[in-house]
Automatic annotation (TrEMBL), chain A:
A GO cellular component entry from the record: CAAX-protein geranylgeranyltransferase complex
Species per Swiss-Prot/TrEMBL record: Lipomyces starkeyi NRRL Y-11557
InterPro entries: Prenyl_trans_a
Similarity section: Belongs to the protein prenyltransferase subunit alpha family.
Protein name: Protein farnesyltransferase/geranylgeranyltransferase type-1 subunit alpha
Automatic annotation (TrEMBL), chain B:
Reactions accelerated catalytically: L-cysteinyl-[protein] + (2E,6E)-farnesyl diphosphate = S-(2E,6E)-farnesyl-L-cysteinyl-[protein] + diphosphate
The Prenyltransferase alpha-alpha toroid domain, residue ranges: 46-394
Quaternary structure (record): Heterodimer of an alpha and a beta subunit.
Cofactor note: Binds 1 zinc ion per subunit.
Species this protein is from: Lipomyces starkeyi NRRL Y-11557
InterPro entries per record: FTB, PGGT1B-like, Prenyltrans, Terpenoid_cyclase/PrenylTrfase
Name of the protein described by the UniProt record: Protein farnesyltransferase subunit beta
Required co-factors: Zn(2+)
Tree of life domain: Eukaryota
Family assignment from sequence similarity: Belongs to the protein prenyltransferase subunit beta family.
GO cellular component: protein farnesyltransferase complex
Coiled coil: none
Cited Pfam families: Prenyltrans (PF00432)
Length: 314, 418
């Protein structure tokens, strides 16, 4: 069955430009299917004169279904849509079909951004983004697109509840945590300490569900740092999770009860910040020798860095 | 550390969460699968001939129709396998292959725009331009080099430069750190870096560092291994990396995030927090380590901060496909992309790179060509003759000496009026 661009339009006036792979014996030539070879021949011909026509638009539709990674086709299509003053909502619906058929394709996101930016209306956007994140909850390009949308249309209000839901589904979804950080701090306005307190509590509750979850820890420490609050604020929380008890000189970890090695790491940093070098060293040694030996040299480096710092400032 | 000790990490006490989610299920599967393949004692052998045969496919045959999805990545289909072939064994690179690079790449040039596209008649694109120039560097084809219109290419680069300091991949395309790296690496090879081209760019990269310590694709985006490399390498082109890296990145948090990318028992790197290991990050994350170790003396000291021995095991046991070529992880097919970056990662494991600025005053555009290397110490990783691969330039991801030669060729032509 001929493709729509062929059956609906006449191409008799166009001389297709054949693929040129370069020289007599080119590297990496592809044995294209005939349909694709013919369609790209017409594409090169119309693109070379920047033809603005309905048949060219139909050609881009057909080609995108044959090879959605063909970025030149997407860019040409956007120029055609604007030049022909096409209904942009129809385009958004069409992109949704392409997205569902090729969920891993990322060219659609830049294209959709270009279209929605001109369309000035984000009404279809969040539902579509959510469908795509259901297919792949860590799809980098979809999350990036969502950030663009939130900034472009000032959609900040929906975002915290959305990350709640995504983190509820998978507390280890780091993309959702990153989006939460963006939501809380990305607006660039001053944030009250009560918001910071809420976020610290939120992260702590998530850590209690899965104490080894690096996403929640990174978030907790990231919030503290951004709010310029000291990590010593979470010392008790960390001591509990690391099953760490001790005196001013030494720390003791109950190996049967420790639930989080990250808690032990943060404790080491807290000790070091108070110049309790001996205790920090004990924690790093445990990490290097027992709990996280693949990063042994990193823990030794932390210790050496601290020794050097205190020698230098003594 | 003795050679025996650097092969095994098996005395750990593991602390494991009981809560099961989608992330932990897939993670457990991969960890189990890899642990079952990685053996103590003798290393798996690098199947050099098998991989070379796979990598020579684009030089000997028409690629089958299922490669149509890469029809807008033709320069990559040349750069990936040829770079990998050369570090695997320089003798793989025959005069016949090298002489065919020039015409194949020049067919991707968009003459109207002045830069390279993903194939014949395609729109000029930064990733395609980067891959094209890297492939041309590998060709050593001075005749083709002299045909490149550097003024035109410079004008096009300026046309994709954005007011905030970043770059977009093509006119109207997406803005990300990849674009920045591809633009700067291309300009460095052609010796066309100017203050106008680089204005505000280091600051823009700095805005991409996230609360986790890594670098995201654009400000606000999640920290990611590929973008981390692009951002770090771009800083090494923009100026003296000894000054640029600490000035524009929070090095402590970057190193912390980088260090968390290596997983046990797999030994490989993941690209993001709570994602799975993937062989390609052997380069994207490993390349960051190479650069940091070569630039910052307090990291270089004696031991590297991560386990080269464990990454080498992941590569040799888990990333070699029985049909030839390198792969993401067991159960996946090999491809040219993974072959390029897994083998570059292996090269990274086996060499120690140093940034050595020349004594005389360095000019802008030279900074990424001042890297030296030596074989890594046997105290850190066992390198036997069977498994050793060649060194590379850790900023340009090109076989060592190749990018330097291309840059010198253009530098000798004198300064362009830009």
């Amino acid at each position: 069955m001929p493709l729509a661009y062929m059956s609906n339009y006449s191409w008799e006036d166009i001389a297709p430009i054949p693929q040129d792979d370069g020289g007599e014996n080119p590297l990496a030539p592809i044995a294209y299917q005939d349909d694709y070879k013919t369609a790209t021949g017409y594409l090169r011909a119309v693109m070379s004169v920047e033809e603005v026509s309905d048949r060219a638009l139909q050609l881009t539709s057909d080609l995108i279904f044959m090879n959605p990674a063909h970025y030149s086709v997407w860019a040409y299509r956007a120029r055609l849509l604007f030049a022909l003053k096409k209904d942009l909502e129809q385009e958004l619906i069409w992109i949704e079909e392409v997205g569902q058929q090729f969920p891993k394709n990322y060219q659609i996101w830049n294209h959709r951004e270009v279209i929605v930016d001109k369309y000035h209306n984000p009404i279809r956007e969040l539902p579509f983004v959510e469908v795509m994140l259901e297919l792949d909850s860590k799809n980098y390009h979809v999350w990036s697109y969502r950030q663009w949308l939130v900034r472009r249309f000032d959609l900040w209000l929906t975002e915290l509840p959305y990350t709640d839901r995504m983190i509820e589904n998978d507390v280890r979804n780091n993309s959702a945590w990153n989006h939460r950080f963006f939501t809380v701090f990305g607006k660039g306005v001053d944030i009250g300490q009560s918001v910071i307190d809420d976020e610290i509590d939120y992260a702590k509750r998530a850590i209690l569900k899965a104490p080894q979850n690096a996403s929640a820890w990174n978030y907790l420490l990231g919030v503290l740092k951004r709010a310029q609050r000291p990590i010593s604020e979470i010392e008790e929380f960390c001591s509990d999770l690391a099953a760490a008890t001790g005196t001013e000189q030494s720390v003791d970890v109950d190996i049967d009860r420790i639930a989080s090695t990250r808690a032990l790491e943060v404790l080491a940093d807290i000790y070091a910040s108070r110049r309790e070098v001996e205790k920090a060293t004990q924690a790093w040694t445990l990490l290097a020798e027992k709990y996280d030996p693949i990063r042994e040299n990193y823990w030794k480096f932390k210790k050496a860095q601290t020794d050097q710092h205190f020698t230098a400032t003594a | 550390m003795t050679a025996e000790q650097n092969t095994v990490h098996n005395e750990e006490l593991s602390v494991v969460d009981s809560l099961i989610t989608e992330s932990s299920t897939t993670q457990d599967e991969v960890a189990r699968m890899c642990a079952g393949m990685i053996l103590d004692g003798q290393l798996a052998v690098l199947q050099r001939q098998l991989h070379a045969d796979f990598l020579k496919i684009p030089t000997s045959f028409q690629l089958p129709p299922n490669y149509t999805g890469l029809d807008a990545s033709k320069p990559w289909l040349i750069y990936w396998p040829l770079h990998a072939l050369e570090i695997l064994d320089p003798d793989n690179q025959t005069d016949d292959i090298l002489s065919r690079i020039g015409p194949s790449i020049m067919a991707c040039l968009n003459e109207l725009e002045g830069a390279f596209g993903g194939g014949n008649g395609q729109t000029a694109h930064l990733a395609a331009t980067y891959a094209s120039l890297n492939a041309l560097a590998i060709s050593r084809d001075e005749q083709v080099w002299s045909q490149i219109n550097r003024e035109g290419l410079y004008k096009w680069l300026m046309s994709v430069k954005l007011p905030d300091g970043g770059f977009s991949m093509h006119i109207g395309g997406e803005e990300d750190v990849r674009a920045v790296y591809c633009a700067l690496a291309s300009a460095a090879l052609l010796n066309i870096i100017t203050p106008e081209l680089t204005e505000g760019t280091a600051e823009w990269i700095s805005r991409c560092q996230t609360y986790e310590g890594g670098i995201g694709g654009a400000p606000g985006n999640e920290a990611h291994g590929g973008y981390a490399f692009c951002g770090l390498a771009a800083l090494c082109i923009l100026g003296n990396p000894v000054e640029m890296i600490p000035k524009y990145l929070d090095v402590d948090s970057f190193v912390h995030w980088l260090s968390a990318r290596q997983y046990q028992p797999e030994g490989g790197f993941s690209g993001r927090t709570n994602k799975l290991v993937d062989g390609c990050y052997s380069w994207w994350v490993g390349g960051c380590w190479s650069i940091l170790e070569g630039v910052l003396p307090w990291i270089t000291s004696k031991d590297v901060l991560w386990s080269k021995a464990d990454l080498q095991k992941y590569i040799l046991y888990c990333c070699q496909s029985p049909r030839g070529g390198l792969r993401d992880k067991p159960g996946k097919s090999s491809d040219f992309y993974h072959s390029c970056y897994v083998l570059s990662g292996l090269s990274e494991v086996q060499h120690r790179y140093s940034f050595r600025p020349k004594l005389r005053e360095s000019k802008s555009g030279e900074w990424s060509f001042m890297w030296t290397y030596e074989l890594e110490s046997p105290d850190i990783v066992i390198i036997d003759e069977q498994n050793v691969v060649g060194p590379l330039n850790p900023v340009h991801v090109l076989p060592a000496g190749v990018g330097e030669r291309m840059h010198d060729f253009y530098a000798a032509l004198g300064t362009l009026e830009l």
